[in-house]
Amino acid sequence: HANGMLLQYDATLTPTAAKWLTILSALLLFSTPAFAFMSAFLLGFAKRKFQLGPVLWKRVKYLLSPFVFFAVVYAAWGSYNWGFPFAQRLVYNLRGGYHGYFVLIVMQFYLAHAVLEPILARVKPKYALITAGVVNFVYLMGLEQGWFTPPAIGFNWSHLFPAWLFYYVLGFYAGRYREAFQAFMQTRLNWAVGLAGGAGLVLLYRVLSGAMPDLSSQRFDVLVYATGVICVLFGLAGKLRRVPAIINTISRYSFGVYLLHWFLIELLWRLAGERIASAGLPGLLVLWAASVACSMALTAILGALKIGPFLVGKLGISARGDAPKRATQTSSSEVPG
Predict the structure, then answer these.
(1) What is the pLDDT of residues 55-95, one digit of tens each?
(2) 335 three-class SS
(3) Least CB-packed of 40, 197, 228, 289 within 10 Å?
(4) Taking Cα atoms as reference points, which of 255, 238, 230 lies closest to residue 336?
(5) Nearest to 225 by CA among 22, 1, 33, 3
(6) At CA 285, angle to CA 7 and CA 14, rounded to 5?
(7) Average pLDDT of the residues of the chain
(8) pLDDT in tens, 2-25
(9) Can you tell me the mean pLDDT for 265-277?
(10) Please, are residues 248 and 322 in contact by the beta-carbon 8 Å criterion?
(11) What distance lies between CA 134 and its chain's CA centroid?
(12) What are the b/e assignments for 107-138, b being 16+ CB within 10 Å?
């Protein structure tokens, strides 16, 4: 989303920089699915009795509250900068119109988990994964290709649970059988790299050729690409004895970065857009790094306030040290990096 929103500035970029921006935006489309996967991973990894009421209340406080807060912030920003009617934009954001829609997906995961967890615990993973993959793929392809015209419900159909079903099922089993899944992926790492690379090339071709230029994570080709990237990252993570300090730090602030990055990129572009555009690809990379750093700093400042956890969520737990033993609770932020 951070890079995708910059497409509005293509007119100020050189053709080469604009093309690189599109490529980077497409290749980063795995990020939101990866967040969805990790949310489901934490549910499976906890492996404890699921109590819907207390779990949902905690997520309402530390996930849904920040979602609502930033829906207001971005509605105000849109009204100030582009003249959007504030009330109309706020309703649009609350329905998942801004990049925080991921929170709505995670909330659906918790509701679905109360029903699906006892079922998935009794089904062989390969059958559940195949079924979920087919349903998810056909659902997204049907929306993209216009096989069916869903009725207007005031909510984006690609934000509904069937569009993210496979990430939930994959994450659930990866968490529930973490050691076995990591061992399996380490022996299939070449296969995972091939899947990610091949699907990535197909994705880039469809974007750059104009066959499907829309940069959205709710595409059926992204489903395959993101799955490959997730498997590669999971296989590589299993080879690490310790979590690198930089990854641990970014992970702890990841939810705040997720919510803030759009605003910081927009602000930094307004301050130094011409210099960034003239620098081409290096300028875009500096912009990305600066937006992450500034988002982390602002998250730390807001998080230190008493009301901070309700604005940017709780900071994630530290993952330094050896590989963690099975947790009894999920991470407080619910959105690790």
Answers:
(1) 788 888 889 999 999 999 999 998 988 888 999 999 999 99
(2) coil
(3) 289
(4) 255
(5) 33
(6) 50
(7) 84
(8) 334 444 455 566 777 778 888 988
(9) 84
(10) no
(11) 21
(12) bbbbebbeebbeebeeeebeebbeebbeebbe
* Whole-angstrom distance, CA of residue 235 vs CA of residue 244: 16
Q: Is residue 86 within 8 Å of 79, Cβ to Cβ?
A: yes
**Using one digit for the tens of pLDDT, what is the confidence trace for 141-158?**
999 888 877 777 777 888
Q: Are 319 and 251 in contact (CB under 8 A)?
A: yes
- 218-244 confidence digits (pLDDT tens): 899 999 999 999 999 988 877 777 767
Contacts of 192-196 with CB under 8 Å at 24 or more apart are 192/228, 192/231, 192/232, 192/235, 193/228, 193/232, 194/228, 195/224, 195/227, 195/228, 195/231, 196/225, 196/228, 196/229, 196/231, 196/232
Among 229, 247, 240, 243, CA closest to 296: 247
Size of the chain in residues: 337
What's the token pair of residue 326?
A: 């099975």
Is the separation of the CB atoms in 12 and 273 below 8 Å? yes
| Cβ density class 231-240: b for 16+ within 10 Å, e for less | bbbbbeebee
Q: Counting beta carbons within 10 angstroms of the beta carbon of residue 60, is it exposed (0 to 12), middle (13 to 18) or buried (19 or more)?
A: middle
Do residues 136 and 163 touch, judged by C-beta distance below 8 A? Answer: yes
pLDDT at 10: 52
